[in-house]
Amino acid sequence: MGTTVEHEPALQLWTMLRDRAFASLKDDFTARVAECSLSLPQGKLIRELARPESQRELARRLHYDPSNITSLADSLEARGLIERRADAADRRFRLLALTPAGERLRASLEERLAQPPAFLQRLTRAEQKQLLHLLTKTFGG
Description:
The chain has 6 helices and 3 strands; from the N terminus they run ααβααββαα. The chain is mainly α. The chain has a single domain (5-139), classed as Arc Repressor Mutant, subunit A (Orthogonal Bundle), CATH 1.10.10. Helix 3 (55-62) crosses helix 4 (66-78).
């Protein structure tokens, strides 16, 4: 007697998380980034620049090719959102840093991202608490 997807809650749950929840979260994130007139990769880069970083480190953390970071940095620098600075530890290297305008944009983006997505309103407050409890149990925290 084989286990089928419709009879295995863990498989159903994983399929829903993997396919529907991740897609919904990505769509919501993309929409909020677009509200700040940023592409998805630009938004990710802006969020990573809480402090000045090397392009190499940013490429590693974001899983981007270094040439993509250069292109993103060029476009954000042209908009006055980031600047390239010499690394005090090794002046041969350049760091990317947010400008004051970039800091304001990053703060605005973080404020938007802090708001729960609309799809959570499909759940009652009690259901939200129950889901929070289950996810905390599942993922720790």
